[in-house]
Design goal:
seven-stranded antiparallel sheet, 327 residues, 2 helices, mainly beta, single chain, 26 strands, 43% strand
């Protein structure tokens, strides 16, 4: 997925009562995907208030979209460096092609994890038989020692684990007795949870992890804070339990993201994650010049052969890291 915000706007949440400050709720902003007339998505990460949850550095939430009305997803080949992309769908299908030679479908309830490392290119197109497109695109920042690793791709269809009041699919890390076989470069957690009406679920979680709860369907209360559609509740490390409550009369669905705090500063612009303005500028120049750093995507048949990079901002691109915890 392509981040078309060359100079992304950042939201700052207002002050909250002291009793509610154990949970920070980030609200999304609408941005176009792949171009100004393209499908719109709700972007929650990054923001000024929080840039990462563990190594999770980017979250786009989209749909449910009527493909007949909106046209669906058609993102031409575009580059990535220094990150992994995690694609997760609730409905519809997306055809993925990349310069590693992968040609795969993204299906609901199945993880496609692509490692960009030193450089990769890929395209994403919703399939002709998709009527409703609904899902999440996530990025994971690679630590310095691994950020120039080779291109890679993993697919995993996690089984459903039943808990009292909830169904869980763990696509990265471990939760509720389920462990994903997909490797990660930093300690991570990624899981889909569907809560039944009136359900209260208390999860054992790693107290060393930061956690984020992304609201998708219905309405869930996280540690006393009610979420709206697209909200991301952020929780600092320290607690070994996480309570989710669905007070509604229908099902509720969330994504639970977690990870050890990512101590490194990153510089993120367009589709690149690096460590300096100069490095980002070099990645851009290499993509514009058709460098083999990113390879070639075969089989894409869209209106344009590849997405051009936007112009660099006039100011230096600033490094991102989470602000220090209060106290």
């Amino acid at each position: 997925m392509s981040n078309v915000e060359a100079d992304p706007a950042e939201l700052v949440c207002g002050d909250r009562p002291a009793a509610a400050r154990t949970v920070t709720v980030l609200t999304p902003r609408d941005v176009p995907l792949g171009g100004p007339r393209a499908m719109r998505v709700r972007r929650t990460l990054p923001q000024r208030q929080r840039s990462l949850i563990g190594a999770w550095c980017f979250a786009d939430h989209y749909g449910p979209e009527d493909v007949a009305a909106g046209g669906g997803m058609d993102v031409a080949p575009h580059p990535h460096t220094g990150l992994q992309t995690a694609s997760w769908l609730f409905s519809g299908q997306i055809e993925h092609r990349d310069s590693l030679g992968t040609h795969a479908l993204v299906r609901p309830g199945e993880l496609n994890l692509m490692t960009g490392g030193h450089g990769i290119a890929h395209s994403e197109v919703s399939t002709p038989d998709t009527t409703t497109l609904h899902g999440v695109q996530l990025w994971i920042a690679l630590p310095d020692e691994h950020r120039h690793t080779a291109r890679d791709f993993h697919h995993h269809a996690p089984p459903v684990a039943e808990l009292p009041g909830a169904a869980v699919r763990v696509f990265l890390g471990s939760l509720a007795g389920s462990t994903s076989p997909v490797p990660s470069f930093t300690p991570l957690l990624g899981a889909e949870l569907t809560l039944g009406p009136g359900a209260r679920v208390v999860l054992d979680v790693d107290p060393a992890f930061e956690h984020g709860v992304l609201q998708d369907l219905g309405g869930v209360t996280v540690a006393g804070r009610k979420l709206s559609n697209g909200d991301l509740a952020c929780l600092a490390p320290g607690a070994g339990e996480l309570e989710l409550v669905n007070e509604g009369s229908g099902p509720a669905r969330v994504l639970l993201l977690g990870g050890a705090p990512f101590a490194e500063e990153i510089v993120m612009w367009w589709n690149f994650v690096g460590r300096s303005h100069e490095e980002i500028a070099a990645y851009r120049a290499a993509w514009q010049a058709g460098s083999e750093q990113f390879g070639r995507v075969e089989g894409y048949r869209g209106a344009v052969s590849r997405l051009p990079a936007p112009e660099l901002p006039h100011a230096r691109i600033k490094a991102r890291r989470n602000p220090p915890a209060p106290g």
